[in-house]
Design a protein that fits this description.
Elements (H helix, E strand, L loop, with lengths): L3 H13 L4 E2 L1 H5 L6 H10 L15 E7 L5 E7 L4 E8 L5 E4 L8 E2 L13 E2 L5 H5 L4 E3 L2 E7 L6 E13 L2 E13 L1 E6 L2 E4 L7 H4 L4 E5 L9 E5 L11 E4 L14 E9 L2 E3 L7 E4 L6 E3 L1 H15 L14 E3 L9 E5 L3 E5 L1 H4 E5 L2 E4 L1 E3 L11 E4 L7 E6 L4 E6 L7
Parallel strand pairs: 4-13, 5-11, 6-12, 19-27, 20-26
Antiparallel strand pairs: 1-12, 2-3, 2-15, 3-4, 3-10, 5-13, 7-10, 8-9, 9-10, 10-11, 14-15, 14-28, 16-29, 17-18, 17-19, 17-22, 21-25, 22-23, 24-25, 28-29
């Protein structure tokens, strides 16, 4: 899974023509599976970098919004007095990080860079502490623990130091350990300054706030409205039309331990029922990848089923990198696509969530083959993208290791 997100990002830069730019070196870097991750894991096993604060008794709510590049971003503050920051919400992300001052090579961001010296509650991880000692790539300067290694979910190499400070994210306030980045080989992330990781790791936002459950509900990307991330007791479904799927069991050391993998039993499109090949049924729920990816044989079957169900002739020249597009006027009767997971939990994706406007008067299938990624690592892995989760309330129960979901008007939830 090391190059998963950076490869997806490079593909999506072509799709949405955003300003993202990643160097070749960054594109080949792994996503936080190197020395830094292993060192922090050893240091924080049984404890955290900072004393995380559980969410308020009534839970917490974090507003978020779509960017032009179709990523979900939340605004928050760090430090005392608070300094504004913004970050991608990364369901698989391992930790919270942001760019800090003293940057030698900062990527472009919309807000001013966080200045640690201006915060009275800022604490750098000391050189003699367990965290610093456990990071193989660490080095010390002025009793600050610096590291050099992959940290970003965009795959870029970063240089920074481990630290802790007060965070206010939506209605939640907590003292969190985070990565303070002072150099990277990323040119831009399109505005945000970092990432909020929700992965199953000791240092993610979820773990540091001692959450047993959280949920999110993404509004349609073209609605101009606000999505929401619910933390703790505020994370709950209305019930009635909800379904629940068990997470795929993983073993120690498995690269999927930080992710939220489900077992895909089948996909229904029109009259067609598609079963994934044996050994290629794992699907990751994702928030950084806007579009979904299916193993090639499953994708080819889905492509044929969509063409048959739509009935209209596809365009002769699809909008790159999509390979199935239709004139907008010809797809009014397109069916919903139904993903069925282990335990018969079914997630229905309506036409507007899988046929998106990629060009004027042209709708394209916002699902791609993993073969497009040109990575043997992903040949047998599927990904459920964020566009296909619009107006679906997704609930993650960490104790039960389940994902529950139900259709919802996400803009009306509070």
């Amino acid at each position: 899974m090391g190059r998963l997100v950076v490869t997806i990002l490079l593909v999506l830069c072509l799709i949405f023509l955003t300003t993202c730019s990643i160097s070749t070196r960054a594109a080949m870097a792994s996503r936080a599976h190197g020395n830094l991750r292993r060192g922090l894991e050893r240091a924080m096993r049984g404890r955290l970098l900072a004393d995380g604060t559980a969410s308020p008794p009534g839970g917490a709510v974090v507003p978020s919004h779509w960017t032009p590049g179709l990523y979900n971003v939340a605004n928050f503050t760090i430090g005392t007095p608070p300094q504004a920051a913004s970050a991608f919400i990364d369901l698989s992300g391992e930790l919270v990080w942001t760019q800090c001052s003293l940057c030698r090579r900062c990527f472009k961001q919309d807000l001013p860079v966080f200045t640690p010296n201006s915060s009275s509650t800022f604490q750098a991880a000391p050189c003699g502490g367990d965290v610093c000692k456990s990071i193989p790539t660490s080095n010390c300067s002025s009793n600050m623990c610096f590291y050099d290694g992959p940290l970003t979910s965009l795959g870029g190499n970063t240089f920074g130091f481990a630290a802790a400070d007060k965070f206010t994210i939506g209605t939640a306030t907590a003292s969190l350990g985070f990565g303070c980045v002072v150099a990277s080989d990323i040119d831009t992330m399109g505005g945000p300054s970092g990432f909020i990781g929700l992965g199953r790791t000791p240092w993610s936002l979820v773990a540091q706030m001692k959450l047993t459950k959280f949920s999110y509900c993404l509004v349609p990307h073209d609605s101009g409205k606000t999505s929401r991330l619910f933390l703790g007791s505020s994370a709950k479904l209305a019930g009635g039309k909800s379904a629940t799927a068990q997470l795929v069991k993983t073993s120690p050391g498995d690269v999927l331990n930080q992710d939220y993998p489900l077992q895909l039993e089948g996909i229904k499109a029109g009259d067609a029922v598609i079963s994934p090949p044996q050994g290629a049924s794992t699907i990751l729920v994702h928030t950084v990848a806007p579009v979904s990816f299916l193993v090639d044989s499953t994708y080819q079957d889905l492509k044929k089923a969509v063409m048959k169900a739509v009935g209209a002739a596809p365009t002769s020249k699809p909008v790159e990198p999509f390979d199935l597009c239709f004139p907008k006027a010809g797809v009014s009767g397109a069916p919903s696509i139904v993903f069925t997971f282990h335990g018969a939990a079914a997630l229905t994706v309506e036409q507007s969530r899988y046929l998106i406007e990629a060009d004027k008067d042209t709708l394209c299938l916002a699902i791609l083959s993993t073969s497009w990624l040109n990575s043997t690592e992903l040949d047998e892995m599927n990904i459920l993208g964020s566009l296909q989760q619009e107006n679906i309330h997704m609930l993650f129960d960490l104790d039960k290791e389940t994902v529950s979901f139900e259709p919802a008007d996400c803009s009306s939830l509070s």
